[in-house]
Amino acid sequence: MTRRILHVVSNVAHYDDPSHPTGLWLSELTHAFDLFEEKGYEQRIVSPKGGVSPLEPRALKWPLLDASAKAWLNDAKRMALLSSTASPDEIDPGDFDAIYFTGGHAVMWDFPDSAGLQRITREIYERRGIVAAVCHGYCGLLNTKLSDGSLLVAGRKVTGFSWREEVLAGVATDMPYNAEEEMKRRGARYEKAFLPFVPNAVVDGRLVTGQNPASAKVTARRIVDLL
């Protein structure tokens, strides 16, 4: 049976300061998408509002722009997927076996309070599907509640971009909130690797999270293992 994956990307193009651009960290999408494609999975991309998903400029420069992301940039059909993403109301959660939240600082603004994304996530999870996120993508799980009113992340092991990594990246003072602390406030059992910026994925049942951009591949592999 063909598996189906729903990728989630941001519609936000800048920080609170409009002169500070941001967007999707492209390799966090491409590394997973490429792996799932190799497995023959069907894939679709959704965003909080639908339409265009801007790209994070820093991720498009050497040495962060790798072969996978570069191949997407040079493929008009692939890039078209990011200019016409689906909106949540166009998505039937019953069609998907897993949802995968990508990152980039942009998602901190539009993922947490998207009722549409919360609905899709809840329904996929409660249908025994997989909920996954990489890097800042875990912001999309902050406020998602299950049908019984409990937070999906409460009492669960998760990882995601750490505050230490925000500081080392030089952007901590520009953040709208401390995502690591917000996860802990919601009762999540936050974990991180001893060293920053190294691949790290955490699995807790059908919840799979990766810590940073370098973790996209290992996070995707964990999803494949569960499927």
From TrEMBL:
Residues 27-224 form the DJ-1/PfpI domain. It comes from the Bacteria. Pfam families: DJ-1_PfpI (PF01965). The keyword Protease does not apply. Gene3D superfamilies: 3.40.50.880. Keywords: Glutamine amidotransferase, Lyase, Stress response. PANTHER family: GLUTATHIONE-INDEPENDENT GLYOXALASE HSP31-RELATED, PROTEIN/NUCLEIC ACID DEGLYCASE DJ-1-RELATED. Belongs to the peptidase C56 family. HSP31-like subfamily. This is Type 1 glutamine amidotransferase domain-containing protein.
